[in-house]
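User: I'm preparing a small set of examples for a lab meeting where we compare how different chains pack in three dimensions. I only have the primary sequence for this one, and I'd like the structure in token form so I can line it up with the others. Please keep the answer compact; I'll paste it straight into my notes.
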Amino acid sequence: MDRLIMALATGFYVGNIAKAPGTWGSLAAFLPWLLIKDLPLPAYLLVLLAVLIVGFFIAGSAEKIIDRPDAGCIVIDEILGMFITLTAVPQHPVALFLGFVLFRIFDIAKPFPVSWFDQKIHGGTGIMMDDVMAGLYALISLQFIWSIIF
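Assistant: Understood. Below is the structure token output for the 150-residue chain.
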């Protein structure tokens, strides 16, 4: 069971890449996103909810297995953050790239309340929720920028 938990938590071991696991996890999110991107919005949102709920348990369990709080190799949170960012994204390479960049900026800079979740909430909930918030910031920013520029 530990192997399955670690495989899911690390994005099938993408999170084990030594340099910048969060960035690699965010990039890896594009592959499963391709499978869900054309779902009707209600179904897409249900997938996000399922990933969030499973992520709470998987990230928390992986944290215990590794015995380190919010270990960098756990990237299921970045995958969900990218799924949120890419909700209703325009099907254009520039929009996809901009979504990736915006998510990474918000995930790294951690503006409030991203930082609050990162610092105050622990376990699987904290691991997932700071990236949920970063994903929401990136989603809103992407849609706003796209509507103005394009």
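A couple of notes for your slides: Residues 2-149 form one domain. The chain has a mean pLDDT of 95.

User: Perfect, thanks.
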